[in-house]
Structure formats: C-alpha cells, structure tokens
C-alpha cells in the first residue's frame, strides 16, 4: 500500500481500488468469514453493509446475502513485474538463464564457486519438485478470462467484486470481477490440483462454468460473448503442508523459499523480509535492528545472493 502511494500506478501497475467481498450467508453465521472481516476492518474504506449488493448491481440469483468492502491495492502484474525487474537491475542484480541438471544440493558447491556467492536462495516454484527433490510440491491449474474494460462491452468496472465464501482449494470454480490497469478486466476463475499441463480452451467445462456464474453474479457481463475474452491458463506452485521457507536439512548455504500456491504476489514482500532477517542472523549477527523496510529487503535479497 505504501508503494502504491509513493510511485505512479503507470510505473508500478499498482492501483488503489474499492474491493467488495460478497458472501452467500450472513457473516455472523460463519466464524471463519466473520473473523476475516474483522481483520480486514482495519483497512481504509471499510464498510459492512448489504447495500453493496444493490449499489453494484449484483444479482440476488447468485445467492449473495452479505457484503463488506475495503480500499486495497490491485496489481497489474505485467507492469509490476517489469518495474520490480528494473529496480533489481538498478541495484546491481544480474539475471542469468541456465539449466540445472539434478538437484540444487548436488550442484551447490559448483554454483557457489561460479557466482562467488555465500548462499543460494531457491525460489524455483514448481521446479522445486525436482530441484529440491520435494514431492510435496504440486501444480494447481488455474484459468481466468481477460476482457476489455473500456466501456465497449459493459460499463467500465472500477471496483473489484468477488464472492468470498465457498472458494475451492483443490478443484472447482469461483467468482471474481477485477479491473486490472486502465482498460482490462479479469474474470475468474477455476482451480484443479495435480494437473501438469495448460492444454484447455474456452470450451472446457470449468471455464464455461465460471463464465456462466460471473454473468449470473454481475449482469452487465451478459452483453459479452465468448469471442470477447482471452483465456489465460497457468500453474500455481502449491505445496502440501505449507510454504517452505527454511535452510535445507543438509546445508546452511541453501535457503528454500517456495510453495506459495496462488498467493505469490501477496506473500512476496513478507517472505523477502523474513529471508532478510534469516540472512542477517547468519551473516550479520551483531546487527540489532533491520535497516531496510520490506521493499528494500526484497531488493537486498535479489541483489546480493543467487536466487534460482
């Protein structure tokens, strides 16, 4: 949020927008969702009211019964990735593309010597299944639809809207309508665990299902046709149990950081900050206070140590 206020959105891709979360039961009747709302009530622009249903034209046929909204940062990831890449380059980070055969541990000494490094940070996502020999890593296939948000198909969407309850963790569909940047809207979505390919199209059953559900939820989308959208399919790097952010059991020169699933953008700064603390504890034990914020930490980590 601090970054969105200090840098222009055209540079970072980060826009502060109202984000509305809808629920298919009263929040007071769901302990998990109610606790989530209480935590998010500390964010700016918080409102808890069913008025959000009518205000945003949500169709009651979607089953929504309650809602709250906050002001939150939404990321145009294409622009943000280029921005963070440029920030790393400015700070001396070198990007090298090579293939590693075997595990990182098998290649550790050669890599440390080649790059004159003291530590390797393994942030290889799905590749950690092989590179860290971690069979707890698995893909979750996801798909979203990108559609123009210029007012030509439906009134320009300026708020993020989603149904926050009943989100599947392994297989199924969910509903969200999210403006990305100035002229794009992202509709979602679906998840399928243990699918290792991205070979699906607009005719795929789950794609058809989430598009149908989005049109029920937000009626202005009913004006668009299948040809109006671009399907984007990817694999989320999940891990059974949890994120792995720790030194390898066999080496204190190999630090793992993977298994973020579909939350990589959300967790990236926090994980970078934790890595920064781990590095300080190992290489600068006399340092009593961190001298960087979470953004500086991500640059610090990416600039000083090989990140795979």
Could you explain the architecture of this structure?
The protein has 308 residues and is an alpha+beta fold. It is 31% helix and 27% strand. The protein has ten helices and eleven strands. The protein has helices at 2-6, 9-12, 31-40, 51-55, 77-90, 104-114, 128-131, 205-217, 264-283, 294-304; strands at residues 14-23, 47-48, 66-75, 120-122, 137-148, 160-163, 171-180, 184-193, 230-239, 244-248, 251-258. The strands form two sheets. It has an eight-stranded mixed β-sheet with strand order 2-3-1-6-7-8-5-9, with helices on both faces. Strands 4-11-10 form a three-stranded mixed β-sheet, sandwiched between helices. A hairpin with a 2-residue loop joins strand 10 (244-248) and strand 11. Helix 9 (264-283) crosses helix 10 (294-304). It starts with a helix and ends with a helix. The model is unreliable at 293-308 (pLDDT under 50).
Please state the average pLDDT score: 90
Total helices: the number is 10
What is the CA–CA distance across the termini? 27 Å
Helix content: 25-40%
Secondary structure: number of strands: 11
Write the H/E string, N to C.
HHEHEHEHHEHEEEEHEEEHH
Strand order, biggest sheet?
A: 2-3-1-6-7-8-5-9
Summarize the main sheet.
8 strands, mixed
The low-confidence parts are 293-308
DSSP strand content: 25-35%
Please identify the structural class as seen in this structure: alpha+beta
